[in-house]
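Repro:
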Amino acid sequence: MCLALAPPTGPTRRLRWGGGGGGAGLRDSAAAKTAEPELDAAAAATATATCAAVIKTGKLDPHYPKVCGHRGNVLDVKWNPFNDFEIASCSEDATIKIWDIPKQLLTKNLTAFRKELVGHARKVGLVEWHPTAANILFSSGYDYKVMVWNLDSKESVIMSPVKTISCHQDVILSMSFNTNGSLLATACKDRKIRVLDPRAGTILQEANYKGHRANKVLFLGNLKKLLSTGTSRWNNRQMALWDQDDLSVPVTEVDLDGSSGVLFPFYDADTNMLYVVGKGDRNIHYYEISANKPHLNYLTEYHSYNPQKGIGVMPKRGLDVSSCEIFRFYKLITTKSLIEPVSMIVPRRSESYQEDIYPPTASAQPSLTAQEWLSGMNKEPVLMSLRPGAEPLSPQPLPSERTLSVPTAPTSPHLFNQTERLVAEDGRRPFSLLEEKAPRWSAEYRQEEKKTWLSDGFDIFECPPPKTENELLQMFYRQQDEIRRLRELVTQREVQAKQLELEIRNLRMSSPRL
């Protein structure tokens, strides 16, 4: 196993590893990159791992301490979403190992694993942590089986899973959970997408559509939709959007290009943004997902000069909110033996916390124990605010859809049109700034006050001053609308006054002189 562990660096810092054996020998399935707020890791198709400090950027020594334990090539690595110092790895040696990474990082080679999971008959290609239950791990192997593991067991070597799902007819290429972990979607080499009950192991939905060959599948938050990437019948790279309750035909299909690299989709449920990264490509496409047609709204793309062999993302709680960073990628560039962070930033002038782009997101606290989930309970993730110093919130449903109608930008962003977004978000009428027509103590004033000084519950006398740049902009645009309305009203009154003047003049001209 080859892992490069480092704390998250800034958007322009890079990590380079030395030696000639790590880069050229990377396999397709193992050229992966994962990250946690404390550490990040790149997995290569070797039997060792390299670990480095986060602040230690630049070239790493080829003899830097490694994680050594698997007897075959490592095919997948995943961080525990509830423990920033725990990794699950799977290998061609048909085992899964759980590693505890020391908080002070490695000073010598790490060979002692915490747990070993033995159950697959052939090599293990994928591992996936449950999104809400602690210590529940899923694995899939080349024996066409998905296994569910309970890591609460006291044994260091677990020989049997709590559940084995044997409904697939070929190698499983991708796994994805919905928000609360009650559904599992898989993409298989037999060209079928399946939605499973992960506890019962039964098939709830199965796609037999022949026009799309899926390689990756992804649940789109609480939108009750699936997104798959793969190839069309004409061998073009393609994305397909599916209704999770009806997989007979896709809701929509989008052909991209004729390249051969596998497409990796990443979805941000907080902003409804979809990022599509192609293996061997030099760009990252991003889309906005909406519940209404055309569903997939193309925004723009990030372009670089170096092709990526693999890519991973940083969890939302590890982002730099002071720079309005909403997503961070880690590109594995094997041609230069390089791991390069790429930050997606919404440019704002103010450095204050921007609540409109940082809704409550999943925290590092599980909402269920392993036994509770196995007994049939389902809970939404425990949410937290990304505001510095905020505490996790109680478990509650995530918002079904949140629209971010402005494109995101990489480290060198373009200026966004904030006016359209704010006007679209704020559906209230502008408040009225009319003159007083009666003393404040009179009954006429109190009756007219209800009609004049309040608009949609907005009291301009008791309104607190805006605290953020976003509130100030909303106030500004509402005042602009009110000024425009008042100007139109003044113009109408001027026209009426001129008409009355003409009528008076006509009456004077037509009346006989005395």
